[in-house]
Amino acid sequence: MKFQNTGYYYLAFLVLAFVGFWPSYFSKFFDGSADFNQYFQFHVVTALLWVAMLVIQPILIRKKKFALHRTIGKFSYFLVPILFISVLLLANNRISPELEPVGPEFWIPFKDLLIFSFGFGVAIWYRHSMTIHARGMIVAGLALFEPVMVRVMYNVLGLQGTYPYILGISLGYVVLMVLIFLERNEKQGRWVFPVAFFVFLIVHIIRITGFNPDFWERFSHWFVSLPLT
User: Fold this and answer.
1) Contact 224, 108 (CB under 8 A)
2) Is 98 helix (H, G, I), strand (E, B) or coil?
3) What tens digit of pLDDT does each residue of 55-100 get?
4) Which of 30, 226, 40 is nearest to 147 (CA)?
């Protein structure tokens, strides 16, 4: 499995993200009610650039534009740290240090960064192995899957309460299980998705159980108290 068609899947995902965020974000620019601050806008731009890379890069491989693929890939060394900064700045801006406890709230964006870090780390470490590199990039893309699906469930399907989160999280596991099943006979790189499944499981168990050790609570409170935004 070389995953050369994943660009088209991520193009569909980009459309899904547009639909999911339409009521709460994109439509605001048409009715004049957009009042998003610069930290939120910064995060939107960096996230869209990342999804654009997920769309373009596999298509370039499919069309054998390897040199251009490598050039754009080098841009990710700049974009990914900027994306991380955008997430952390948004968390610093939105989470109040007066919240008690603050650790579980700060874990929500942090867990997505952990998933992203695993996927992107695999992709870069194995950049000379196309099959493993592609799997890593897919996992890095899946870090965005939950936030988008939650918005679709809430803004489009009108689900309320915890249902959007439960379904959004569950669909991520469904995608991983399908990929693991499809790869059951692969000889190279099939370890990536099972390990990613384990990473997903750990971060969500921490989120669902509200596990909040003292060191994490102190770190979270320190970070959201920083005068960054």
Assistant:
1) no
2) coil
3) 999 999 888 898 999 999 999 999 999 999 999 999 999 999 999 8
4) 40
